[in-house]
Amino acid sequence: IIAGVVLLGILAVECHGQDRNTIRRQERIERTLLTQLRLDSENASSWRLLGRVQLELNKLEKARESLTRAVGLDQLNAAAHYDLGRVFIRLGREQEAIVEFRSVIEIAEESSYADKARNHVLELGAELPDESDIVQAGFEVRQFGGLERLPIDQNDKLQPPSSAPSNLYIRLE
Question: To the nearest 5 percent, what fractions of the chain are helix, strand and coil?
Answer without folding.
Answer: 60, 0, 35
